[in-house]
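Hi W., the flavin-adenine dinucleotide complex you wanted:
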Amino acid sequence: MKSNFANPKLRAELRSLFAQQVHEDVQLRNLSYLKTGGHAPLLLEFSHEHNLIPILSLLQAKGLNYKVLGLGTNILFPDSPLDFIVLKPVLPSKQLLAPAAMPATSNFAASPAQLYKEEGMKTATLHVTAGLALIRALRIAQSHGCLGLEFFLGIPGSVGGAVRMNAGVAEREIKDVFVSARVFLQSQRHIRTLYKKDLRFGYRKSKLKTADIVVSATFRLQQANAAEIQIAKKRNLQKLAERREKQPLAKPSLGSAFKNPPGNYAGKLIEACGLKGRSRGGIAISSKHANFIVNDGSGSAQDAKALLDEVAETVWNRFSIRLATEIVFF
Ligand SMILES: Cc1cc2nc3c(=O)[nH]c(=O)nc-3n(C[C@H](O)[C@H](O)[C@H](O)COP(=O)(O)OP(=O)(O)OC[C@H]3O[C@@H](n4cnc5c(N)ncnc54)[C@H](O)[C@@H]3O)c2cc1C
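Structure:
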């Protein structure tokens, strides 16, 4: 249902109920890694189940639609104002790790991460809030002597976005470290604990629907000694250097624009069509990596959409292969 988000009564009610959680007329280009997009009339932040539930109750009572935004590293916002509310998970506080001795349920509301080392075992679990950046989850794990999240390096998204997208690299994806997540399922109007089998992860997808919300997630780690951590950190630096060499990381982008079709690479197909450097307005196919679109600062969402359509059509005409976007259209 469309709603008049300029309505001063609605805005006043939201402000009075949710105070600092409410942001009005937010410029989306500031929240997008591609630096495009119009504005969100209303954006509401939440850090935990406790402050998400009252928001959802109110939105339901008023029949207001919403979508969830993570760190905006995979989303193409439209140039026009959004006709739904944006919900955004944020960190509960600056304190990044609750004391490990605390029981699983005790203090999570005050901390975005809790790590549990299973005594006498080689494994550990890391419980993190949806708004935490993957790189921070990785650093928390390594600084507490645990490995397993190394593939997070170079993926600039949040935990929630990564679970939704089953983010990953060729060798490893979220599903390989995933234990469970607390998820608001719109169909059931409840927050539930979901396990790997429930999410049916696939290549850059899960079964979560647009209005489902990942509130937190638990990942399985391995305990490691100091030498093993040092080796992993060195390897991290190498991997980052490789990414910098192959990907246009200095320019605004959304990572891989298209999913790789079975047995092939989207970038290879796009390059073979001679499309590297092709542009629409301020958006161009990167000359460094053909599966990245980059913004020179003046590009719009419309430019990006037109370029993505052109690429898909050109690849189809040349190879009869349909490219599906990895980028999410908000
Ligand atoms: C330079 C660069 C490199 C990248 N490299 C990789 C890579 O190697 N591998 C890879 O997989 N991806 C990569 N990406 C893409 C992106 O970082 C991942 O898809 C990431 O998981 C998206 O997380 P996000 O928080 O930014 O989500 P967003 O972009 O904000 O959202 C993506 C989708 O997830 C949904 N979503 C976000 N948060 C939640 C939540 N809490 N609950 C439910 N749904 C939610 C959104 O509604 C949207 O549908 C790259 C991106 C960039 C810019």
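The first strand starts at residue 22 and ends at 27.

W.
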